[in-house]
Structures are given as structure tokens and as C-alpha cells.
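Hey team,

Sharing the Ring canal kelch run so nobody has to redo it. Sequence (344 residues) first:
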Amino acid sequence: MTLSANALRVAFVLAMSACSPAFAETAVQAPASLHAPHALQWKTIAGEGRPHARHENSLVSVGDRLYLIGGRDDRPLDIFDTTTRRWSKGSTPPLAVSHAQAVVSSGKIYFVGGLTGDYPEEAALTHLLIYDPATDRWQVGAEIPKGRRRGAAGAVAYDGVLYLVGGNTRGHMSGYVPWLDAFDTRTQQWTQLADAPRARDHFHAAVLDGKLYAAGGRRSSHESGNTLAQTISEVDVYDIQRGTWSVAPAALPTPRAGAAAIARNGQLLVMGGESTRQVKAHDEVEAYDPATSTWQTLAALPQGRHGTQAAAVGDALYIVAGSGNRGGGPELDDVLVLHESSAQ
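Structure output:
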């Protein structure tokens, strides 16, 4: 069903209560990539307009546009045209959603899991939330099974199926889980799959060659005083066709949570993040090559950040917004891009 934003807000409240001009680029020199003969550069883009500052938000691409959605408190949908470098505003999301790795399937943007409400014990979404860029309309999707709802989880879309791995059922309390669930967008059915080797939350997942990678993250435990401390270095790998889990031979070099992850050019990239090691958010960009089971350090972000997502348009990799320090601020509104072609 397709509803107005106000109607969607009412629907979610009921569901939750029932369940409990000129452009400039500033370049930052970067080391050489595995895939390009020349050194690459991260650039900070300034275009027409600016997005709303936010963190714990989602960022995905559909066509040539980036969709910056959600975050702490009510944040509007900001849309960036990467061709014209102009920002515009989309229809208002039905509720404040944070800690969600949005995914794209058949041109639509899905929130498979996420959190809403106040820190530290935020509530998990009760239903899928779907946005159609073609119509600029929001839609309430299928109900998420009551015993499997969580946020701060990893999510991927693969061959029409949405996968949700790990996450936290109680926001930032000790509700971390190792669960893996699949939602088939064609049949509208949920399937419980094998648990991951370990529980984790506050991480992003990615798919490489039919395998789901869960890298980084932590086990949040606000009540024990270990909200940020219990980071995870092991990388868990799920073979989608075989339905089996394994552990990657090489651990994440810089364990942290809240990092963005994306698959590019046969590698898993893990960018930014937060940890107790430092007050400033991490600026590390680390790439894992499954073919050699090795990690490489790539160009650092011009400014560290956590609590945002990475998205790609063509050969350009984008990161927008996030938090500049561990925790909730400062909230950022800048646009970072890394062109993977030396021609840029």
C-alpha cells in the first residue's frame, strides 16, 4: 500500500505501540590503489545547496542520484544529483529511522531493519519501510517477524532477496544477536537462516561474488558501561548459495564500529568508524581482497566519521554526513568522493 507521510507516521506509531551555482573540490592526496596506476584523491565536493547535517543515517544510489535518508531525530530526505551537483528534497520519511543500512532492489530503497526512538534503548522497526524514487512515495512493507526485529545490523540485497545479519534488538543495550534473516521481495516471505559465528551490531555488510561479508562492529552494552569498547576484528563470511558460514583468514586491521562498508572492484572496503581508541572518528579506509586474503590501507578520509553509509555511482565512491567524533557529534554535512578512474 502507498500512503502519505502523515498516514505512514500514524501506521508506524500504531504498529510500534501494538508490539511493545559554482562548484568547488578540495583534494586530499591519497596513496595508490590496487586497481589504478596513478595515485587517487578523495575530494570534498561543494555544489548547489547542502544536505542536512546528520549521523546514524543511510546513503544509497539509484541511477545518478544519491539518497541521504534518516539519522538521529527527524531528518528530511535529501537527494544529490551527481551530474548537476545539486541538492533537492524528497518526500518526508514517515518516522525518524536511524542505524539502518538501506539497500536497493529493483530500483526501490528498502529499510529492512533499523531503530527509532531515544538512546540508549531504541525500538526496532516493526515493518519494512520502502521508498520509490520514481514516484517520490513512501510505503509500509511486510511485517518483520516479532522475534527477529533489530537495528544497527548489516543488510544487503542480492538477486531479489534482502539479507539482514546481526544487529541489536535493544538499541545500545546488550541485545546484540548473530541472526541472519532473508526476505524475498518476490514472494514477500521471510526465512530464518543459520546464525553467524558471532553476534555483532553497528556495522555494515557487503556482497562479493555471492558471499556476504560482515566486518567490524561491536557488541554494544550500555548497561555494563561498554557501549563502544567491545569491537570485533573477525570477518564472518556467508556463502549464499551453500548456506554456510566461515571466517575470513585475515582479521580487520583496525577494529571499530559504525564504519561504512561496500564492495568495489572485487574488494571489501571498510571506511571510517568509531572506537574507544580515540575521540575523533576513524579516517582509515581498509580494503580486503578475498583472492589473496590480505588487507591494504587505502586513502584516508579527509575527515574521519562514523554512522553513515557509502554509495557508488559509476566509478565514483561517495560518503556523505556522519559524526566527526565518537558518539553523537559533531554532525557533518559534507560530501566526499573518490574517483576510481585516473581520468577524473
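The first helix runs from residue 5 to 19.

Ping me if you want the raw files.
A.
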